[in-house]
Amino acid sequence: MNAFRIVPAGDSALIVEFEERIDPDVNAKAIACAEAIQAAHLAGVRDVVPTYRSVAVYFDPLRTDGDALSACLEREAGQSMPTAAAARAPVRIPVCYGGELGPDLTGVASFARMPEADVVRIHTSGTYRVFMLGFVPGFAYLGIVDQRIAMPRHASPRVRVPIGSVGIAGVQTGVYPAETPGGWQLIGRTPVKPFDTAREDPCLMKAGDAVQFYSIERGEFDQWM
Amino acid sequence: MLVIRPGMLTTVQDAGRWGFQSSGVPVAGPMDPVSHRLANALVGNSRDAALLEITLLGPDLEFHDERLVAVTGAEFDLALDGHPVPSYAPFTVAAGSRLRFGARRIGARAYLAVSGGINVPPTLGSRSTHLVSAMGGVDGRALIAGDRLPLGHPKRVQGTALAPQAAIVALSDRRATIRVLPGPQVEYFAQRALDVLQSGPYVIARNSDRMGFRLEGPRLTHARGADIISDATPLGVLQVPASGQPILLMADRQTTGGYPKIATVIAADMTSAGQLGPGDAITFQVCTPHDALTALIAQERALMAVEERRS
């Protein structure tokens, strides 16, 4: 039996909350719960949103009764079991590290007191979990970054971060899918689009996916673009 | 339909881009959902058809064929080829007709529906404009002079004589009492925080937009810090950063956020919130789930009555 509680957020959303910590096992429960709720096709449910440790269920209160829905969610949340990991192959993302495409690599290297090449080696040796998507369409919160290179974000964010920038913010890493303001330490850039509505599946990464980065040269980056 | 003059912030909005928040895609949609639906009802469109949301300063538009048009929400002086036309009632426009928005009398956002709806290509199943992610509407942006908007096939183009429909909810005139339900993170706040929230008023700051209203008023005190593990951010939720000044999340809100959320505006009162703008004041009032549902059912009955009459 999973430990959870159900909290209302206004009259049109219920939040299923699991243990209050950032943890792959807790996150796996939230994602499994979200999938079970989606699969149950409950009447009046408009959107199901898994996050680090909770699931938001948005519903139309004129089409479904909040208490009845809460009882359904209680059933799903208690029963849902994380599916065996690695159901999908890891998403592999090419990154050109450093230089003008990764202006903060130098800073992260001095934060970590190691050569830039070691920062790249550590960043590419990790397998990261997509804990959730948010911030802008297609932005995946990835973790957990090796403590040695887990540099905090900039005190004041950049006004414009280019599309495809790969950043670190403490133990989180991620790829900017759109040109936005952003405070993360930018160590490189990928030529792959994390989000593209022209694709049948616009999102490169989904909650629960495993993600790996690999290093490419500038020439290869330019060829992709 | 041709945009002669765009107004301050005019965007294409349908009922919103639901179903993709798990990919981080914001919902968007109308700031005042009741006026949106009423405008569509008055011209015989389906309730979720795309129309124009008009903010504070209205546009001038030219029509290229005969259509039925209705304007709801904020009240402006409207002139069709120089002759006044009423809000809250459908009127017929001819090929070449020009509709001009004049002075605004009350409310912040008007909704202009055209029979057949605005037929821009949908993105992820919706025509709603989301400005920050440049998605939907016309190239994901507010309208500019010279834009030509494709219209859908109308059910009807002729108006039957119809007295102006009364507003479903009285328009907010620069201030409104908005009802909330506590939570989802009320336990992150000091014990008296809900009383402080209701002691108001809160004034909407200048840097407020379709994403959210930054509010200035009595300071709310956190009990467990101003950071939570990021989670979903529902429409109408009041998130409170370290400053203690709440932000009311509106149509274009991000899908997730990391600040504790003290209370959530009931669905029925989003229409009143949507008629406010910078400088306007909100008084919050905690209500019960029963009050919330009763208010929503009353709105639904009133809207359905208009929809039935027009179908």
Could you please say which CATH topology of the largest domain in chain A applies here? Cyclophilin
Q: Cα distance, first to last residue of chain B?
A: 24 Å
The helix fraction of chain B, in percent, is 10-25%
Number of distinct beta strands of chain A = 13
Using only CA atoms, what is the Rg of chain A?
19 Å
Q: Average pLDDT of chain A, to the nearest integer?
A: 94
The helix content of chain A, as a percent range, equals: 10-25%
- What is the N-to-C succession of helices and strands of chain B? EEHEEEEEEEHEEEEEEEHEH
Main β sheet profile of chain B? 8 strands, antiparallel
Biggest chain pair contact, residues each?
A-B, 43 and 43 residues
Strand content of chain B: 25-35%
Instruction: Kindly report the spatial arrangement of strands forming the biggest sheet of chain A.
Output: 7-6-13-5-12-9-10
Number of domains of chain A: 2
What is the CATH-assigned architecture of the largest domain in chain A?
Beta Barrel
Number of helices of chain A: 5
What is the element string of chain A, with H for helices and E for strands?
A: EEHEEHEHHEEEEEEEEH
List the defining traits of the structure above.
A: 225 residues; alpha+beta; Cyclophilin; four-stranded antiparallel beta sheet; 5 helices; 25% helix; B: 311 residues; eight-stranded antiparallel beta sheet; seven-stranded mixed beta barrel; globular
In short:
Chain A is an alpha+beta fold and 225 residues long.
Characterization of the model:
The complex is a heterodimer of chains A (225) and B (311). Chain A has helices at 24-40, 66-79, 105-112, 116-125, 218-224; strands at residues 5-8, 13-17, 45-50, 54-59, 91-97, 128-133, 140-143, 158-161, 165-169, 172-175, 180-182, 185-189, 210-215. Chain A is an alpha+beta fold and 225 residues long. Chain A folds into two domains: 5-77, Gyrase A, domain 2; 91-224, Cyclophilin-like (Cyclophilin, Beta Barrel). In chain A, helix 1 packs across helix 2 (66-79). The radius of gyration of chain A is 19 Å and the shape is elongated. Chain B is an alpha+beta fold. Chain B has two domains: 2-166, no CATH class; 175-303, Cyclophilin-like (Cyclophilin). In chain B, 14% of the residues lie in helices and 29% in strands. Chain B is built from four helices and 17 strands. In chain B, strand 10 and strand 11 (212-216) form a beta hairpin. In chain B, helix 1 packs parallel to helix 4 (289-310). The radius of gyration of chain B is 19 Å and the shape is globular. The model of chain B has no long low-confidence stretch (mean pLDDT 95). Classes of the chains: A alpha+beta (225), B alpha+beta (311).
